[in-house]
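User: Please run a holo structure prediction.
Assistant: Happy to. Please share the sequence and the ligand.
User: Here you go; the ligand is NAP.
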Amino acid sequence: NCLLLCKEIKTMFLYILGLVTVWYLYRWYKESKRVPNKGSKYVYITGCDSGFGNNLAKHLDKLGFCVIAGCYTEKGETELKKVSSERLTAISLDVAKSESVKKVAAFIKTLVGEKGLWAVVNNAGVATPSGPVDWLTIDDYKSMLAVNLNGVIDVTLSVLPLIKKARGRVVNVASVFGRISPFGGPYCVSKYGVESFNDSLRLNMAPFGVKVLCIEPGFFKTSVTDTVMLKNQFKGLWDRLPQDMKDDYGQTFLETSEFNQLRDSDLMKVVHCMEHAIASIYPRYRYSPGWDAKFLWLPISYMPTWISDRFFLRYSPKPKVSMI
Ligand SMILES: NC(=O)c1ccc[n+]([C@@H]2O[C@H](COP(=O)([O-])OP(=O)(O)OC[C@H]3O[C@@H](n4cnc5c(N)ncnc54)[C@H](OP(=O)(O)O)[C@@H]3O)[C@@H](O)[C@H]2O)c1
């Protein structure tokens, strides 16, 4: 009897394994299909001076798309033009300024004509000021939300009619910190906002044939995660605290606050997800590039609050007056 049961369990296991393999093969085949006529498709990317945006602009240019690269600095614009084809248009853009967003949208309208815009990638973002909530002012929040959240909404609305015309795509770069908030400050707030905007837009645009896709990377080695920059700005926030707050937190809090997260230096993991969202006939709703995103942050985000809180509190520095 026991032998028979073992045999049945083995057969069942093989069936399940077979089904899972067939499912993955089917998904791989379906997702490998790409949209035709790349040369006549315009893709507008924000924040192309560095990091993911810069790499994506160059990658899509090589694949034959017509890239419109929004650059924050003149230097970024010039350097990107130097290494790309004539199809790529680099243009000055500050997503936090409505005038700049409008100007670029008007330019894109004349450029794409009746075809419309195939995709917009809301990539521009900042990660500072970042620190404990009670170290910050409302202006600190406003300055980051202006780029990371209002910028995303403003840019999207400015080109949405052109995207509807092309039955195209909106790709929003959120973060794993749009799913869980392990630290204070406006960054997670802004990324939760992007997630929400993404989800409501996806539902609202579905009847128009517009796809809305979200990228939620883990930690990658770019300027937003630069250890020295993050430490310096943290020290800057500390320096402006009133003495009684400094006494509550204690010098050790400042010294033991850690910014050396494990950062993946393969930015192409993120770029390939962005490219898939733009060019695949069957894109995914969500992409989570990075091992830390898949095996740490997302699983923690599904856990009960008491477990995730315990985990974060266990591994974060405590103020001098801490009662836990
Ligand atoms: N790196 C990560 O681990 C990580 C993880 C999750 C999500 N993300 C998100 O990924 C996106 C890209 O970041 P990244 O990691 O590639 O860092 P990055 O290299 O700093 O890229 C951000 C880009 O946005 C530009 N930018 C800043 N303020 C702007 C503004 N007001 N208007 C237009 N552009 C502006 C920056 O220009 P300057 O370089 O000239 O300042 C830079 O080119 C961001 O939304 C970020 O939040 C990053």
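The first strand starts at residue 42 and ends at 45.
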